[in-house]
Prior knowledge:
The complex is a heterodimer of chains A (131) and B (728). With 131 residues, chain A is an alpha/beta fold. Chain A has helices at 2-9, 22-35, 45-50, 71-80, 98-104, 117-129; strands spanning 14-18, 38-42, 57-63, 87-91, 109-112. The chains are: A alpha/beta (131), B alpha+beta (728).
Amino acid sequence: MELRQVRRATERPLVSVVDDDESVRESLPDLLGEFGFAARAFSSAEEFLASDCVDQTRCLILDVAMPGMSGPDLQQELKLTRREIPIVFITASREATIRPQVLAQGAIECLFKPFSDTALLEAVNSALRSK
Amino acid sequence: MEVQPELASGEVRHLQRCINDLVSLLALPAIWSGGDPSQVLHTLLDALMRMLRLDLVSVRLTDLAGEAPVEIVRIAEPRGLMPPVHEICDALSQCLENDSRQWPPLLRNFMGDGDVSIVPLPLGPQGELGVIVAAAERTDFPRQTEALLLSVAANQASIGLQEARLLCDQKRVASELDQRVAQRTAELAAVNEELKKELAERRVMEEKLGQEERELKRSEVRKAAIVDSALDCIVTIDHEGCITEFNPAAERTFGYSRDDVLGRPLANVIIPLSLREKHRQGFAQYLATGEARVLGKRIEMTAVRADGSEFPVELAITRIPLEGPPSFTGYLRDITERKRAEHELRRSEAFLAEAQHISRIGSFSWRIATDEIIWSEQLYRIFQIDRDAQVTFELIATRIHPEDLSAFQEHIERSRRDRSDVQLEFRLKMPDGTVKYVHVAAHIRSDHGRVEYFGAVQDVTERRASEEALSKARSELSHVARVTSLGVLTASVAHEVNQPLSGIVTNASTCLRMLAADPPNVEGARETARRTIRDGNRASEVISRLRSLYGKKDPTIESVDLNEATREVVALSLSELQRNRILVQQELADGLPLVAGDRVQLQQVILNLLRNASDAMNTIDDRPRDLLIRTESDDNDQVRLSVKDVGIGFEPQATDKLFEAFYTTKNEGMGIGLSVSRSIIERHHGRLWAMPNNGPGVTFSFSIPCQAESSTSDSTHAGHIPPVPDAA
């Protein structure tokens, strides 16, 4: 699986997933692969920043609430370092304030878990189109 | 004539005996000397019986003035044909009735049935002393010598009797004389005594008179001193109402000198103008009719001073008990001060009564020795008992709620015995059925051996009602708190549930897509389907945890493993805690004893403590947000759970306030968590407290008793926990 993702990375746009929840990290890359994207999963914002994928990532699917650096924290960090990767936020929370907040900061979309595959595809596509 | 020798010698013996007897008789008076008449007669009769060999001899003394008649009889034994003595005596009495001078010298066979010779011998020259009768059956009685002996004996007896009588008389006279002398002496002594007494009395009288005189003098001096130094004004007036005496106190009080007012009408001096006419009328009426409205009573009136100022006085008027026209003494006292004190007392009493009325507090005193009970007016009102009723324990008992009566009486007896302070609360039941709650507080006071309880009774019915309302409000708060916790938790719960749901949806979508591919990716589809099932189980676990936390309605008592309960709570709140960058560390003791309690309620408390700790560290950025949750068992069969944070802490003096509802150090939040938590722990017979740490932050702890039988988890044997009202 890892090999396939690496292999396709050169020819397909890379979508990175950052979420502290294991089931998301397991399931999302497979779905993204079915959509035809290359996908990488990271368990924390710190892990993503430390990886070599930041610059290659065409779309970032980012969890809002995480221990340590949160999703919005990472959004700010990327903005400050001028690595403006289109971000699709995903959150299990139902707090109404989160969505407008992250959208105002430039996120493409904010999806509430559980979200449908089509909603995800739409969001990723618009992210890829945005650049 | 020729005398035969035998005869002559018998005759000689007879004569010799006769002479001997004669000598004996002549010697008798010597024997009698100093004796009394009966002694004389006894010896005489004995001598005659022996000398003359008589069968009977008797003597009868005539009845002489002052002496009882005497009759003595001697009879020889055996008596042969002699008739019974009393017959002889009777016969003699009959024939000797007559004058002794006409008695025959000898009576022979006078009773007709025997040969008895009787010789009567008169005593005294005329027989006036009495008679001796000698009798014998011998035919030769009395022989010539015998007759001689008898007559000598009679003579001797007469002389002896005379002498004896004389002697008796002398003795009697002497004793009478003695008696008289003694009597007279006694009389004289009595008179003497009387005289002495009289003298003594006279002396006492004289002394008394002198003393009275002195006392009279002293009394006058004293009276003058009293009048002069009396604090009361003393004014005397004559029958015309003019002043005859005016003491120094009156001078001071009214501002007149004695000399100024003597002889002036009292009315014009001290009675205000407005009352003067009334005074004159009353005085005139008394003089005319003897009726007085004011005499002998204490009356209050207004008086006037020399400077015209008026003031209240108390006045008592008495009539001076002397002959002649009536005169009077008036005692006057300035009662301005007393009036003021009375007024103040009345006002203070009114204040007290009003205060008691408003505060619904009545006061009482109870004297133990006599059971004398005194109530304040408010207490009568509280008990709804007539103000005039005599308060007794019997009466009080009629108002005590029947269910509280025995406890009340027991308390009274204990107080009577121990004399300790009283604090007690009980219910009253009014005649109309209303129930009142009263609180009694009393303490004992001993004053000169008078032991009394003093106390207060407060009607706390309203307070009770508000306490009940408060308890209800608290249970409502508990509900609010729970709902609030639920609301706050919703996010984290949603997060917990949505996480696996998200996995399920994503995996299912992937699965479908893999199966729809050409060729279908069956291996991939199987893997995603497996993940779908796993996430589904995860979601269902979250939901069942949620149900166990919020799904139960009534508090249930079960054996609770605090470690397990803690782990569940931590698992549920972990993501929320992590989001707040709280580093949770658990130190759960091995082999922790079970506790009996309501699992959900205890978990609520743990959740509250975790949230509080988390909130307290929200603004902490200069140090790791460490949270330590620890369980341990106590020495005292208690299990303790503590939650330690390194947050902003609180002021030490705020410790108690922390647990008050609505007290909060946080800017947001309702702050009711801790008070509800504390009430839950207290219902588990435990304790919840907070201590500042040595370093930064606070440690909140609670401890609750271990379950009695910690080896079993049988919930039916668990202890009783009062329900938290409206736990839903």
